[in-house]
Amino acid sequence: AYNYSVYVNTSDDVNGYRPATASSPYLANAWVSYRQPAGPLKGLGLGFGGNYASDNKIINSASLGTFILPNYTVLNASVFYDLPHYRFSAKVDNLTDKHYWIGYTTMNAQKLRSIIGSVAYKF
């Protein structure tokens, strides 16, 4: 997604500047998964995806200057096994253990690699 935002017809301090609450101008998200439909590995599946955000100006005015959070790409992966009434799965978020921050007017560290397991009952 592309988001072009600037202040117009406002104070000289921010006129023509990107709002600090406008988020990153470029964002992308993708996820693909595959489940084996037949054969000895029927029900086994894999998933892979990620999130991207471009540089984000969280302070942006003539009086305060500009402070930019750097861009980031976070990759995630999963493996699962489907049975008629159950799904067993494991997912790794932030596969590469990337240090990154998000924020609008603040700077918030995001979690490093995490591994999550689950069992779901289907009815």
Q: Give the neighbour order of strands across the main sheet.
A: 1-2-5-6-9
Write down the Rg.
Answer: 21 Å
In DSSP terms (H or I, runs of 4 or more residues), the helix count works out at 0
Could you state the order of secondary-structure elements as H and E?
EEEEEEEEE
Mean pLDDT: 96
**Count of β-strands:** 9
Calculate the terminal CA-CA distance, rounded to whole Å.
36 Å
Strand-pairing-aware structural class: mainly beta
Number of domains: 1
Largest sheet: 5 strands, antiparallel
Which of globular, elongated, flat, extended, rod-shaped describes the shape? elongated
Relative helix content: under 10%
List segments where confidence is low: pLDDT < 50 over at least 5 consecutive residues. Answer: none
Strand content: over 45%
